[in-house]
Structures are given as structure tokens and as C-alpha cells.
Write a structure and sequence with these properties.
- The two termini are 41 Å apart.
- The chain has one domain.
- The chain has a two-stranded antiparallel ribbon. The chain has a two-stranded antiparallel ribbon with strand order 3-4.
- The chain is an all-alpha fold.
- It is globular, with a radius of gyration of 21 Å.
- The chain has twelve helices and four strands, in the order H-H-H-E-E-H-H-H-E-E-H-H-H-H-H-H.
- Its EC number is 7.1.1.-.
- One of its GO terms (cellular component) is plasma membrane.
- It is found in: Cell membrane; Membrane.
- It holds the Pfam family NADHdh.
Length: 353
């Protein structure tokens, strides 16, 4: 198998897995909510309601697409398309596994191994807000416009804190390459003392950066308690108010794909990515392919745990007021991220590592 064929298969697989996890996250969301509220949740479409996402997708696909009078038709359709495209393309630079040996040749389980992967992700996240802004403005609806303005303001404030928290990880690894950031967490001595085969994770060195990044990720994905751009009690459905059919579906699925990719990125940056305890031992004793398959399972497991935590937060913590959201971003997270950056720089300077 040549490299191009492998990459094409990898792209198609990643596309299918991202959409599949996004679809079943809608089922999982309702099941988690039902568990927390002592209800049953979806249970009619298939056993345990497992076919409910297919029923929902079919409903959205076959419904009539409605475009309001006075809306900018081209931009109205472009908005959700941008959101969905950006959500899917961000997974291209994440290392989804160690490597696989096919026909005597090793293939990295990463679509695009670029040495500026972190910069690429920040850039794509910044572009993603245009999908919401364009859709909200093109709808010719005051609630949609307010939701779009809220989304843009929210993204600006929380992207700063997110970027600053990432800088501490970049300073530790000395690289913007996600593959190197992951490999650094797979070996070495934990705190310089304990041998850590697959467990030398950044969360043990940067707990504050992790908390800041987690909060910023919740805001970036418009999840509770930061879902002010939608905010049904105030803005009907925010920037999505006028959308129906698959245009609405692309916004909704884009949001769930973003949640999946965000948690995969959190796992990559702070929880060792595809590394797991004993990965070097498994590679040595059972071969590259077994270790590679287990590494794929490891990062997907970590991402799914993160998704469940996102869902738990949604059904536990009430929505912030908008002024509280802005104050948290500008007056709390950014100063904390700057402080963490200064402390990280001082420790690296003093220890020389």
C-alpha cells in the first residue's frame, strides 16, 4: 500500500468516525440527562434507543429547507457549511495513533503531520466563528444577529486564554508539532524521578493550564454554562433561530464534532494523546500493529470520557449571565494564563528543562 492510498483511507475513516461519534453524542446527551434526572431517555427507536440518531438524521434530511424572506440566500447556506467544514478539518493534524505496519512499511496515523499543528488548530478555531457570524447576520433576524454578536465576542475573549494556556505546553516541548508533544508524554521520568512508560503526561506538570483550556474549550464549543450564543430562554435559538432541515443539522452536528475534536485535542495536549501505560512494553512484546491499534483505542477512550464530562457539566451547572461570562474570560482566565506562563518560563529557566 502506498502512502497516498493510506492517507485517503485515513481521511475517509476519520470523517466517518467524527460524524458517527457526533451522531451518537446526541443519543448519549439525552441518556446522560435522563440518568441525572431519573428518567429513561430514548428507548423507542431500536434497542435502548440506539437507532434514535438515525431517525433524527433522516428527519432533518427529508424536511423542507426554509429560507426566510429578506435573508441573504448564499450567505444563509454558507454559514452552516463553514461551521461543518472547519469542525471536520481540525482533526487532520491530531495524531490518532502510534503507527501501523502494512506490507513492511510503517504509516503514521495522522492525516497531516505538519510542524505547526498547534498554530493550525488555533487558526481553524478562529475561522470557525465566521460560520456563526455569517449565519446570524444573513438570517435577517434580530435574535440571530444578537446570537452571532455574542458568539464572536465570546470567541475573542476565550481564545486569548486558550492560546496563552497552550503557550505553556509549547514552552515545555519546544515545538508546535503535535506529534512531538505526544511523543514527549510517552517516555521519560515523571517529575524527573519516576520511570513513566506512556504516562509522562502534561496534566501532571500543567494542571492550571489544563483547567484554563477546559473552560475555554467549553466556551469555544458553546456548551453549558457558556451557551449564550444560543440561549433559548432569551434568544429563541440564537444564530440558529431561522434554520431548519440539514442547514440546522450542519450547525448541530458541527457543534458535536467540535466537542469530539476538542476532547481529542485535550487528550493530545494534556493526557498523553495515544499513549497509554506500558505502550513501549506492548510494542516490544506484541509488535507495532497491536500497540498501534491499542493506541487508537486509547485516544478515542480519552476523548469519549471528555465528551461525557462535557455532558455532565451541561446538565449540572446553570447558564452564566453574559456579563459573568465576559468577566470570567477577561478578568480571571487571561490573568491566570499569564501567571501560569510566567511561572512555567521561570521553572524552565531555573531547571534548564
Amino acid at each position: 500500500m502506498d502512502l497516498l492510498t493510506f492517507k485517503i483511507i485515513l481521511v475517509v475513516t476519520l470523517f466517518a468516525v467524527s460524524l458517527g461519534i457526533a451522531a451518537y453524542s446526541t443519543w448519549g446527551e439525552r441518556k446522560v440527562a435522563a440518568l441525572l434526572q431519573d428518567r429513561i431517555g430514548p428507548n423507542r427507536a431500536g434497542p435502548f434507543g440506539l437507532l434514535q440518531p438515525l431517525a433524527d438524521g433522516g428527519k432533518l434530511f427529508f424536511k423542507e429547507g426554509f429560507i426566510p424572506n429578506g435573508a441573504e440566500k448564499f450567505l444563509f447556506i454558507l454559514g452552516p457549511s463553514i461551521t461543518m467544514f472547519i469542525a471536520l478539518i481540525t482533526g487532520a493534524v491530531i495524531p490518532w495513533g502510534q503507527s501501523l505496519n502494512i506490507g513492511g512499511e510503517s504509516f503514521s496515523i495522522q492525516v497531516a503531520n505538519v510542524d505547526i499543528g498547534v498554530l493550525f488548530l488555533i487558526g481553524m478555531v478562529s475561522i470557525g466563528v465566521y460560520g456563526m457570524m455569517i449565519g446570524g447576520w444573513a438570517s435577517n433576524n434580530k435574535y440571530s444577529l444578537i446570537g452571532a454578536i455574542r458568539a464572536s465576542s465570546q470567541m475573542i475573549s476565550y481564545e486569548l486564554a486558550m492560546g496563552l494556556s497552550l503557550l505553556s505546553i509549547i514552552m515545555m516541548s519546544g515545538s508546535l508539532d503535535l506529534q512531538k508533544i505526544v511523543s514527549d508524554q510517552g517516555s521519560g521520568l515523571l517529575w524527573g524521578l519516576i520511570p513513566a512508560d506512556g504516562m509522562n503526561w502534561n496534566i501532571f506538570y500543567q494542571p492550571l493550564a489544563f483547567i484554563i483550556f477546559l473552560v475555554a474549550a467549553l466556551a469555544e464549543t458553546n456548551r453549558h454554562p457558556f451557551d449564550l450564543p444560543e440561549c433559548e430562554s432569551e434568544l429563541v435559538n440564537g444564530y440558529m433561530t431561522e434554520y431548519s432541515s440539514m442547514n440546522f443539522g450542519m450547525y448541530m452536528f458541527g457543534e458535536y464534532v467540535n466537542m469530539f475534536i476538542s476532547n481529542a485535542l485535550i487528550a493530545t495536549l494534556f493526557f498523553g494523546g495515544f499513549n497509554y501505560p506500558g505502550i513501549a512494553w506492548v510494542t516490544e512484546n506484541y509488535g507495532e500493529n497491536i500497540a498501534g491499534i491499542l493506541s487508537i483505542v486509547a485516544i478515542l477512550f480519552k476523548a469519549i470520557i471528555g465528551i461525557l464530562i462535557f455532558m455532565w457539566i451541561r446538565w449540572t451547572i446553570p447558564r452564566f449571565r453574559y456579563d459573568q461570562l465576559m468577566h470570567l474570560g477577561w478578568k480571571s482566565l487571561i490573568p491566570l494564563a499569564l501567571l501560569n506562563l510566567v511561572v512555567t518560563g521561570a521553572v524552565i529557566l531555573l531547571t534548564g528543562s
